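The freezer alarm interrupted the setup, so I double-checked each line after restarting. Inputs confirmed:
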Amino acid sequence: MSEEKSLNFLEQIVEEDIANGVNDGRVLTRFPPEPNGYLHIGHAKSICLNFELAKKYNGQTNLRFDDTNPVKEDIEYVDSIKQDIQWLGFQWAQELHTSDYFEQIYEFAVQLIKKDLAYVDDSSADEIAVSKGTPTTPGTPTPYRSRSIDENLDLFLRMRNGEFKDGEKVLRAKVDLASPNMHMRDPIIYRIKHAHHHRAGDKWCIYPMYDFAHGQSDSIEKITHSFCTLEFIPHRPLYNWFIEQLGIFPSHQYEFSRLNLTYTVMSKRKLLQLVQGKFVSGWDDPRMPTISGLRRRGYTPASIRTFCERIGVQKRDNLIDVSLLEFCIREELNKTANRVMAVLDPVKLVITNYPADQVEELSAENNQEDPEAGRRMLPFSRTLYIEREDFMENPPKKFFRLGPGLAVRLKNAYIIKGESFDKDENGEITTIYCTYLPESKSGGDNSGLTVKGTIHWVSAAHAATAEIRLYDRLFNVENPDGEEGDFKSYINPDSLQIIPNAFIEPGLVNAKPGERLQFLRKGYFSVDTDSTPEKPIFNRTVTLKDAWAKEVKKN
RNA sequence: UGCCUGAUAGUAUAACGGUAGUACGACAGACUCUGACUCUGUUUGUCUUGGUUCGAAUCCAGGUCAGGCAACCA
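Predicted 3D structure, all chains:
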């Protein structure tokens, strides 16, 4: 383990700070979600970054809810966010809420007013927008900019006391209306909202804006390194300006680029549209890039953490290939998931030389990658189900499966040879007939034969049935955000295929929700949260790599 | 057309003035009682033009391209 992993740019910053004795080497980060939606894998990047970086440098991480907008926030989201972070494997030092600082933030505002650095503005939203000018032309002061300190103090108190209606007045910082940075053109720092807050109740009718809450909260908590995404870069001068004018603890903001993944969307707004428009079954639909969706899909916390580590941290825009995420979950599940057999698209197979009333119990390895996983017994009989695609009437030369005259190994059982088949009036094969080699039994094969292919099966009389849900990418274009028009028009209509009656090994009816398995040759699956022994439900987490599918595609 | 970011294989990410490396993907092969896994090999890259330097992905200047910013959202 002498291999040195290079540091990402934020780790470099932290190491430099520690080396220079900044904050006495103390490292305290925070993860600051607004409780107005569910966490997605983009948040996971931020969570991993904040928690792992702090831990690496003997620091800690707070969970702070940025709950400054009561009309959009809800306790439901608070709970889901906490669950998701813990599920990912992280524990915050303190659970904090910006709303707990409202009194102090209010005092900060008063302080600003007293320094003549903030004023109450009676202008309408439109008037303020106009007065801010444009990026190329400076803003102009509204008539209220020159109010006296005393008048501002009085008005602000009356705002707090509920004497005005929503939108009637705002408190603005007095910064620089001519700044090339639009965020410095007297930003609004308090607005009136007569709304019930999920945590503060009805105590307040004025609420601070993000720019006058986030940095202040960082400072109150003495956060040393405040990491956020790139779109907050233009806010940083304001972040620093407030710290300077207020003379409070100098937290520092650093920005990194947010995660984008191919074949999905990542903005909360768009995910909400998918949920509300019923394009998916909910926030935890296994096709969603939400943490809860990935969890239900069968992703593990470790695979998501590994993924976040491999994508790195930088400042350039990126679009990560979802195949990397898939690689991370396959890599883990290959080592940990038991192998079982399930036939998704069954066709009957009759072994004509196998005794009609004989049933054998065959021993099967659970996971050859893990000797500890043990073995299980499987019933075998004359009539089986195999995968329809594993038989071809006129197979091409590279087809290593069953066909007339073609021999193949039944996994954990015998070598069989295809003989004949029945078809119905539509030309669809209904039954395949084959013969088996009794001396080719797995574990004791002395047939002297080797076959190129091995296929999976279940005994028809013993198999249980299950609902299997096959998931594919939610969108059929790599970057739905980058396409013309409504992103929803690029939704993949085949992103969910439900197989109501697949055949599974009898023992699988007892699989517990959340359990992860490999269906041999079909992919990794996990037991759905709605699954019961009476009606087992499996979600496909990810397919196996399929060299044959590629071969077929080529021709 | 103001300000702010950024630009290294298909996608990401290293190299911090000294041999452009790694992962995923793709392609080819070996192995295989999973056409899986594993293993081997191949392919493809420093946005551009100048400058500094013995030497530039790296430093400087100009350009190009991409993204962000003018919510009483965060």
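Quick read of the result. Chain A has three domains: 19-256, 268-338+466-554, 347-456.
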